[in-house]
Design brief:
Blueprint (H helix, E strand, L loop, with lengths): L1 H8 L1 E13 L3 E6 L4 E6 L3 E4 L2 E3 L4 E4 L5 E6 L7 E4 H6 L1 H4 E4 L11 E11 L3 E2 H4 L5 E3 L3 H15 L5 H22 L4 H7 L6 H12 L7 H8 L3 H12 L3 H19 L4 H7 L5 H12 L3 H11 L2
Parallel strand pairs: 2-8
Antiparallel strand pairs: 1-9, 1-10, 2-7, 3-6, 3-10, 4-5, 4-7, 6-12, 10-11
Helix pairs in contact: 5-6, 9-10
């Protein structure tokens, strides 16, 4: 347990968004995917995950980078319309209505609340993704449910200290997800296998270097120099500890940064691709769509719709 205390102490949590959503159509989203962690609580209606019904008051946690097929019911008693992740993200306003009245949180028929956040260890590696934690349902946890409600209330009201309170409560929410996993002995094999590399200082140096140099040369030769191991060995070393090869990890980090830039800047797609290490814009766009299921331009449009 002491090891997890050290990991949690090094965990950087960043609030991304909070939403109160009314379901407008009954749909099944195939292979939903996003880069941030999302925690959804069902307030009313029906939601199915992996053919399991989520009860009112229970939550669904989807780690960033993990695919999940979820069915949302608007109460119209029809067969769900099956939509791809791309269709959902680009036509989201047809399926979900985002509500902003804090007094109505948890009181609207066919609705759920959602909090999205980043959680990174040593400010460089995504915690839940690196542990290979799959999406899962959280049951009978009134404390986490209250935290989500409080974050929604703070986000919807422009009161003094709002940002500070949201930051504190989001950090607490992330830790409560970890505690729930440990308390219920979930994903024991993944935790045992994948948490060991958090203790390896050379690997942490590689993570930090990648984070600070996404637009530069991140060849195995460069990474070998960072970790002070041979070029022939660095790929094997990295994969042995993380279960993925370094170039796959680098591409995920580059694409995650690209998503952030699409959401927070007005830079062109060409400029964003170059900033995260892609000299060929067409190749960057192909890889982006392959990873996220939608073109980079539609990702930007999706964010504008979500912030209306």
């Amino acid at each position: 347990m002491e090891d997890y205390n050290k990991i949690i102490e090094s965990l950087g949590v960043k609030f991304i968004k909070a939403r109160h959503i009314r379901m407008l159509q009954t749909i099944t989203i195939k292979n939903f995917y996003d880069v941030e962690n999302s925690l959804m609580i069902l307030y009313d209606g029906e939601v199915l995950f992996a053919n399991e019904k989520i009860e009112v008051g229970d939550m669904l946690f989807i780690p960033g980078g993990k695919h999940a097929t979820v069915t949302y019911s608007s109460g119209d008693n029809v067969q769900p319309k099956v939509v791809s992740n791309e269709e959902f993200l680009t036509r989201r306003e047809l399926y979900f209505d985002s509500l902003r009245d804090s007094s109505q949180v948890g009181k609207i028929p066919h609705s759920f609340g959602l909090v999205a956040f980043d959680a990174k260890v040593f400010d460089s590696v995504n915690f839940f993704t690196s542990l290979d934690i799959p999406p899962f349902i959280i049951k009978n946890n009134s404390y986490m449910a209250r935290l989500i409600g409080e974050i929604l209330q703070e986000d919807f009201n422009d009161t003094p200290g709002r940002g500070r309170i949201i930051k504190i409560k989001t950090e607490e929410l992330a830790i409560e997800v970890i505690r729930y996993i440990l308390k219920n002995k979930l994903f024991v094999e993944q935790l045992v296998t994948n948490s060991t590399y958090f203790k390896d200082p050379r690997l942490i140096d590689i993570f930090a270097y990648i984070k600070d140099n996404l637009g530069g040369d991140l060849s195995n030769k460069v990474l070998a120099n960072v970790a002070n191991v041979s070029e022939d060995y660095v790929g094997q070393y990295f994969k042995m500890l993380t279960q993925i090869n370094p170039q796959d990890y680098i591409e995920y980090q580059r694409m995650e940064e690209a998503v952030t830039l699409l959401r927070t800047s007005k830079k062109s797609i060409r400029a964003i691709g170059a900033e995260v290490g892609y000299k060929d814009t067409a190749y960057f766009c192909r890889r982006f769509k392959m990873m996220f299921g939608i073109p980079a331009g539609k990702m930007r449009r999706r964010e504008s719709l979500m912030n209306v």
